[in-house]
Amino acid sequence: MEHFTDLQDPRTRQSEYPLQELLLVAICAVLSGADNWVDVADWGKLKLEWLRRFLPFENGTASHDTFGRVFALLDAAVFEACFIAWMVSLCPALKGVVAVDGKTIRRSHGKGQKAIHVVSAYAHSLGLTLGQVKTSEKSNEMTAIPELLDALLLKGCLVTIDAMGCQKAIAAKIIEREADYLLMVKNNQPTLAAAVEDFFEAAERDGFDGVAHTQAEWVDGEHGRIETRRCVVAEAPVGQKAFAGWRKLKTLVKVESRREINGEVSHERRYYISSRQADASDLGQASRGHWGIENKLHWSLDVSYGEDQARMRTGNAAENFSILRRITLNLIRLDKTRKTGIKNCRLKSGWDDACRQKLLGLQDLA
Q1: β-pairing, 264-274 with 251-261?
Q2: pLDDT digits (tens, 9 = 90+) for 123-164
Q3: Could you give the CA distance from residue 40 to residue 67 in angstroms, rounded to a whole number?
């Protein structure tokens, strides 16, 4: 709670329900399975005596209307900055892959407003969301990503971003933050994409004669699926116009995937550029690790929290509830003794006061 003291109460008059109490109820309730403000308010009323072990709650807990109104008015940018400050305190020395990707909260649209799109940073090795920034739509990811990168301590990390973030300004920002980039290349950068593809075609045709490179291959198979991935990493050529302006560009990466599912075979080929001088084993694993943000963050938010079904549309309510989801998902992931899935862990937190208190790290007021 100390990291959220910069939040200003948006109400102009003093209320019988202090903002700190509303925050505590909201975080505890969402951790315990609440997916809307009615759930939050009902949970608070049922757990009032337990809540009074940590804060006074002299006037009890607020109604769902009060929660909805306050969080719709609450400054989402400041709330997010507080969230990031909390994560920085937990992870002062990040290592490994940090994936950056966007997600649209599908049912947050209404009354002439578009569904909100959130760009998140996810630490692959820790399984934690480091922060998020709201954009008005997916096409604005390229302006939101630098803002998010500025808020994080990324020194020494490898930042992975899909093709939307393959921009010279974003590459420069990552280098400025003393990190390295691994950016997917597609036809939104047609000159660059053609140059990378032509480079690998020529190198393979000549057997990589005179081209410094490394290769790695992985084979995975389960449930009738066999996937073979091959990664080739080569030093970026010097002096080619297509590669000019990309800060500290050192390597070009090609990843080929062959999937066989019940006898049907499909192929996929992806290209990347990177500022990191690393071999195919490292960059191949990093490119695969990027999709952890889809499987372990976005998927968890949809399946375990029902984020895409949420219908909050007033003011900042959808964005602020999104922050609450990510706060509580991080609390669950920080518990290294956990043996159940995210959804079951939320159920247990709702049923068992001791379980909830352990996840929150709360100490009694007494």
Answers
A1: antiparallel
A2: 988 889 999 888 866 557 888 899 999 988 899 999 999 998
A3: 8
